[in-house]
Design goal:
The protein contains 6 helices and 9 strands. The protein folds into 2 domains: about 25-175, Histidine kinase-like ATPase, C-terminal domain (Heat Shock Protein 90); about 195-240, no CATH class. The longest helix has 23 residues, at about 1-25. The chain is an alpha/beta fold. It starts with a helix and ends in a 17-residue tail after the last helix. The chain has helices at about 1-25, 35-55, 70-85, 145-155, 205-220, 230-240, and strands at about 30-35, 55-60, 65-70, 95-100, 105-110, 160-165, 170-175, 195-200, 220-225. Helices cover about 35% and strands about 25% of the residues. The strands form 3 sheets. The protein has a 5-stranded mixed beta sheet, sandwiched between helices.
Length: about 260
């Protein structure tokens, strides 16, 4: 008990000192070309065992994109976001992915946790603000992690977005500038754009399927989920308006 109390006090002090340093402007970022896909993949592999010990499924969808940012501070932000999802997700899983959004790189941490009410989404970035932890259980954090994320984002010229539904989960998006040194390649085909539409998600793991449906819904797609091909055909046929697959249907496969 004494060790647990000391660890909690040490964590609180370290968090307060870090916030103080950020507010005092003594941290100067070193902007460089960062391989975001490699960083996300490495962190996801690191947290997989811990997630499994909590009964959660940790998935990663990396993409080879380069961002102009500080690698050390970016890693700290991602760790805080992943830690936050682990603390507030009791069942299901977490997906960490990378994609390109316009002229920026978007790193997204999606979970199936308790969610955040719309009127509280701004408050979670304030110091010592925690939802669903009235007893101030230190095992669920100290209420400083997201505040540090917000400050680091401002320091790096990045943007943090949050979208959430109570009882279904939360998506944090970290938007970073694409590196000016990224090699320009002419794609053989036009780059994929999120144009909306319908996507049929077939995945036998319910938690993973739920993560994909939440993420795709946030991107503007209408989704229909099923655990098998047979169930998918039955659901698609029964769906109002008809979801009959055509010969051009493209499948989304997951490991």
């Amino acid at each position: 008990m004494a060790k647990s109390s000391m660890d909690s006090l040490n964590g609180t002090l370290a968090g307060i000192l870090e916030i103080s340093r950020l507010d005092a402007g003594v941290i100067s970022p070193v902007i460089e070309c960062v391989d975001v896909g490699e960083l996300v993949g490495r962190l996801a592999r690191e947290y997989q065992r811990r997630a499994a010990n909590c009964g959660l499924d940790m998935r990663c969808a990396p993409r080879a994109l380069l961002a102009g940012t500080d690698s050390t501070l970016l890693e700290r932000m991602l760790r805080n976001l992943i830690e936050n999802s682990l603390r507030y997700t009791d069942k299901g899983g977490i997906l960490v992915g990378v994609r390109r959004r316009g002229g920026r790189v978007s790193i997204e941490v999606v979970d199936t946790g308790i969610g955040v009410p719309a009127d509280k989404q701004a408050e979670i970035f304030e110091e010592f603000r925690q939802l669903g932890n009235p007893a101030r259980d230190s095992s669920r954090g100290l209420g400083l992690g997201l505040s540090i994320v917000a400050r680091l984002a401002r320091l790096l010229g990045a943007e943090v977005q949050v979208a959430s539904k109570v009882g279904r989960g939360t998506r944090f998006s970290l938007l970073l500038p694409i590196s000016a040194t990224e090699p320009v390649a002419l794609p053989a085909k036009p780059e994929f754009e999120d144009a909306g539409g319908r996507i049929l998600v077939i995945e036998d793991n319910f938690s993973v399927r739920q993560i994909y449906e939440i993420l795709l819904a946030e991107w503007g797609y209408e989704t229909l989920g099923a655990a098998s091909g047979e169930e998918a055909l039955e659901c698609a046929t029964a769906k109002t308006g008809g979801w009959t697959p055509s010969s051009r249907t493209t499948g989304l496969a997951t490991a």
